[in-house]
């Protein structure tokens, strides 16, 4: 890792704080959850996430949705936060950041201790009844789908995951994310920035930084671009940030 580049970036982080962080699947690969796009990771080798995790499949082929799509999603729950999640949670307590907007549904930011987490693609902690609007814990739904698909609420309504499926409207929290992105510097971590409309947020931000293994289409606008592992990069940055504050 280029030490000068890390040192310069740490200076920018401290000078322009507080930052809002926008994370994607890449921050959780070091927790063992494959992203969608890195080749050879296996998670989506046999299924197309845009097809399986869609509103259309939920409605027209619930058996495939619950038996195939859901079982892949639920594998996320065994993962633990990695160093990158933990450092971000501490940066929030120390005032370097002012919250995380995440595209991830894995709950790892909250479990690492981050307080302000905007889950713009939802979460897997519970399922929503489409009829009465109540929540059912995911563990209960898992038990149901072993014998009955689709899972139903006590009122008879369909239970669906509280994740934003392909073809869904974005939740109201996205508006809050837009407002935050408009008035803070934005640090993108582990996102290809190919999924819309999350990839609209960097264009709103007054200042942009990118930490991602691969190039993104926003790199040219960024005041820093670091193309290494999120956990290693944040660990290296954290060392210099500590010296500066
Ligand atoms: P993406 O798969 O499109 O891109 C991930 C990016 O992260 C890639 O450009 C890759 O080079 C980079 N990356 C991978 N590992 C990295 C690491 N250790 N350090 C730094 N960079 C790394 O992910 P996306 O932009 O978030 O969009 C995909 C969609 O898939 C999102 O909507 C997200 O909700 C969903 N998803 C979520 C999870 C999760 O919750 N953990 C996992 C897979 C997909």
List the helices and strands and how they pair.
Layout: H1 3-16, E1 19-23, H2 49-52, H3 55-60, H4 62-74, H5 83-94, E2 97-102, H6 108-112, E3 117-119, E4 122-129, E5 135-137, H7 138-147, E6 159-163, H8 173-183, E7 186-189, H9 201-204, E8 208-211, E9 224-226, H10 230-244
Parallel strand pairs: 1-2, 1-7, 2-3, 7-8, 8-9
Antiparallel strand pairs: 4-5, 4-6
Bound molecules: nicotinamide-adenine-dinucleotide.
Helix vs. strand class: alpha/beta
Quantity of strands, as a count: 9
Strand order of the largest sheet: 3-2-1-7-8-9
Helical content stands at 25-40%
Poorly predicted parts: none
- CATH topology assignment of the largest domain: Rossmann fold
CATH class division of the largest domain: Alpha Beta
* Shape verdict: elongated
Distance between the termini: 22 Å
Ligands, ions, cofactors: nicotinamide-adenine-dinucleotide
What is the percentage of strand-forming residues? 15-25%
Q: What count of structural domains?
A: 2
Number of helical stretches of at least 4 residues:
10
- Alpha-carbon Rg, integer: 19 Å
CATH fourth-tier homologous superfamily of the largest domain: TPP-binding domain
Biggest sheet record? 6 strands, parallel
Chain-averaged pLDDT: 93
| H/E element sequence | HEHHHHEHEEEHEHEHEEH
The CATH architecture name of the largest domain reads 3-Layer(aba) Sandwich
